[in-house]
């Protein structure tokens, strides 16, 4: 109807369905095959949103605009994506294929394929099933990764300056010290390497 310039009828139809189900899909949105909206209620899909095939959306999800963009201003969702309840995906962003968006997330940046994004603002915690710290700023904004990367760079520089100043040899790898009140080691302080903490599958 929308494509055939029957805008009023398309809008009317959309509003009737919204009254019945609590799901508001703008008639201009492009929806793929087998979209599954679980529980309905409070789902909003904006006019320029594009939803791929086999996407699952839970209640309270918004595929909306930020209010700052014109033209294509709603998200593009890849195939086989699952979007948890209450998640807000805002702006002309692209969510890659096979992604999972955590319940309650607010996603404002593009998300690469096979990623799991959680939190506010949304940041990637898993990629292809593995925990990740993002080092490429173009990939996705992750406040925690940013802090770790900055600390790593600062430790590197300080070690360099210390060595230049004292000519003292330092251990090759800085360890991370963590207070472990319940640690079995006795003195309450135990040292962990990043590998101890995060396991072999941690990518930096
Ligand atoms: C995002 C999601 C898919 C991740 O599932 P998963 O792959 O099993 O990942 P994990 O549970 O191992 O979580 C990975 C990390 O993200 C965190 N996390 C998971 N979901 C989160 C969320 N919604 N918000 C914030 N952090 C979240 C976990 O605490 C964990 O962090 P940690 O390792 O530092 O403890 C899942 O948690 C989710 O939110 N699903 C939505 C389900 C939904 O909406 N159901 C509605 C039914 S009505």
Q: What labels describe this entry?
A:
about 200 residues, alpha/beta, seven-stranded mixed sheet, five-stranded parallel sheet, 3 helices, 18 strands, binds coenzyme A
Question: Can you describe what's shown?
Answer:
The chain is built from three helices and 18 strands. It is α/β, with parallel strands linked by helices and 204 residues long. The radius of gyration is 23 Å and the shape is elongated. A hairpin with a 2-residue loop joins β15 and β16. A seven-stranded mixed sheet has the order 3-6-9-12-14-15-16, with no helix packed on it. Strands 1-4-7-10-13 form a five-stranded parallel sheet. The structure holds coenzyme A (COA). The site of coenzyme A (COA) has 13 residues, from β14 and β15. Coenzyme A (COA) binds next to β14 and β15.
Give a topology summary.
Blueprint: H1 7-21, E1 23-25, E2 30-31, E3 36-37, E4 43-45, E5 50-51, E6 56-57, E7 62-64, E8 76-77, E9 82-83, E10 88-90, E11 94-95, E12 100-101, E13 106-107, E14 115-118, E15 123-127, E16 130-131, H2 143-166, E17 176-179, E18 189-192, H3 194-198
Parallel strand pairs: 1-4, 2-5, 3-6, 4-7, 5-8, 6-9, 7-10, 8-11, 9-12, 10-13, 12-14
Antiparallel strand pairs: 14-15, 15-16, 17-18
The structure holds coenzyme A.
Coenzyme A is lined by residues 39, 58, 84-85, 100, 102-104, 116, 118-119, 125-126.
């Amino acid at each position: 109807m929308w494509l055939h310039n029957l805008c009023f009828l398309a809008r009317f139809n959309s509003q009737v369905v919204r009254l019945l189900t609590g799901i508001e899909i703008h008639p201009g949105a492009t929806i793929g095959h087998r979209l599954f909206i679980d529980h309905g209620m409070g789902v909003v899909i904006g006019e320029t949103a594009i939803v791929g095939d086999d996407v699952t959306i839970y209640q309270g999800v918004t595929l909306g605009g930020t209010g700052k963009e014109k033209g294509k201003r709603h998200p593009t969702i890849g195939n086989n994506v699952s979007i948890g309840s209450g998640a807000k995906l805002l702006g002309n962003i692209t969510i890659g294929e096979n992604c999972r968006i955590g319940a309650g997330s607010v996603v404002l940046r593009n998300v690469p394929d096979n990623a799991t994004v959680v939190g506010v603002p949304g940041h990637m915690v898993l990629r292809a099933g593995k925990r990740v710290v993002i080092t490429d700023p173009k990939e996705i904004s992750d406040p925690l990764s940013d802090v770790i990367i900055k600390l790593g760079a600062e430790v590197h520089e300080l070690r360099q300056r210390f060595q230049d100043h004292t000519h003292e040899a330092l251990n090759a790898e800085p360890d991370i010290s963590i207070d472990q009140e319940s640690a079995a080691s006795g003195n309450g302080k135990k040292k962990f390497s990043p590998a101890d903490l995060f396991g072999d599958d941690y990518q930096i």
